[in-house]
Amino acid sequence: MTNALIESTVTRLSVQFPRIPAEVIEETVEMCRDDLSGTPPEALPELVERLAYWRLSEGARGDSVAAS
To answer: Which of 11, 17, 51, 60 sees the fewest Cβ atoms within 10 Å?
Structure first.
């Protein structure tokens, strides 16, 4: 996954998660990329974005529960 693909993924996720700092989103995307390193290259961009979205949404839900 190239830097341009990572940047575009971070940009899209930043729009969907405006309360999460871009640095956290970028770290999450990079961790997901590392976790999926054995994935076929053509599937990697979509799978990284889906996994990052899931992890960020789980974290956002946890934060809102903790704030209650």
So the answer is: 11
